[in-house]
Structure prediction request, 507 residues.
Amino acid sequence: MARLQEREAQARAAGGAERLAAQRRAGKLTARERVAALLDPGSFAELGMFAEHQCRDFGMEGKKFPGDGVITGYGAIAGRAVYVYAEDATVLGGSTGRIHGTKIHNVLRQARSHGVPVIGLHDSGGARIQEGMDNVYGMTGVFRENALNSGAVPQIVGIMGTCAGGAAYSAALSDFIVQVAGTQLFVTGPALVEEVHGEKVSAEALGGAEAHRTRSGVTHLVARDDRHCLALIRELLDYLPQNYLEKPIKKISRDAADRLVPELERIVPLDPKATYDMKAVVRAIADAGEFFEIQEGFARNLVIGFVRLDGQPVGVVANNPALGGGYLDLDAADKAARFARTCDAFNIPIVTLVDAPGFLPGIAQEHGGLIRHGAKMLHAWVEASVPKVSCVLRKMYGGAIPAMGVHEIGFDQVLAWPAAEMQMVPAVPAVKILCRRELDAARDPEALLERKVAEYRELYLTPYHSASLLVVDAVIQPQDTRKRILSALRLLENKPLPTDKRSNPPL
Prediction:
């Protein structure tokens, strides 16, 4: 017993009292404190506490620490079983080697075998170069397990320090990344950038939370500090099931299912060119006005995230006219497609709120691969077998029709507001094409154009025209939006779902 207690104390000492104190002075929790704050009190059971690296070169034989710089095990979050690993920057800088990596991929493999979510807390300077090619086994095994887990069990990663080199790919292979402000996530660091390109760049500019929040889209959520990060992970997990064979937990809602939402007529202007914040619409419809937004700073012309409707977790994909006019573009397509695949993998119904003039035209978009990126959305919708409901608020033109959800792309129900306009081409360009000769010969082409546009809009753009063709199932009053979406989701509650695993690769 004394020997065991001595070894356990040595493992808990990590890199030593001085390094642990330095970590706390920097405003960070230690690796063990992070695990304790993440999990329910007293639920953590550690695995691999006494594992050590086997490297004898470059003076490493005298630098052995029990656990090898990563804490692994399992515990509970809100009573639900989870696996967890937390890298310890006080032990050899949290560097990854063969044993370190093996501990992580053992946890990932067990999580998949047992149908349990896995949460990784990254804080590592990268590969332990003293171990040479032994690193290939450690980190590559992690990538393999991440990929095999994709779509099988939820994988959530917290970036709580540096996450460099191969570890960055492990993070990207997860379902969600929560990054603490002031941390960095990159494949190649500033030193290598300067060596190859002669360019000096700070670690923050290269891979800081703000860069990934707004430019790369790699980070899904940004946290103020360690405790906020862990709280966000716990909250995010609440919307997800244990694995792909289960549904997310439905909670008791105190918000009436048949609640009317009259404020929607105030939030959304009738003028199709007037802007508004779609997030206000989402919150008005959601239980208790709560919206857990994902990738808030990336592709802001599209809004994604989780709400509860009558207690049921639901994924929302919505155009945001307040930014970029609600146009879809390269980044919005990737954002929507990945989120749709995530919801489908974990049996979360999807609702789209549509107000889009189509895909953004322009040479930059076309040369950037708009066709390829836009196709990801179409593929994701067709492949998704979960209940899918779309509601057109004001406009749905051109490529936005299949990209935001109609029956032919796999949606179960399509709703529209009375003022909604739906057509492959907006009224003005359509009339200019269809009535070109008549307009050219007219004495007053502007007056004729105005009259023809009004006629075209009344005949072909109203939701009643789409409803007559069964493109729209029901034209509804805005105040009934929550009630009708919930009615559709209740109808689809027992929609048969496939039992095969659907992977969730990074897009």
User: Anything to note?
Assistant: The mean pLDDT is 90. The first strand starts at residue 45 and ends at 47.
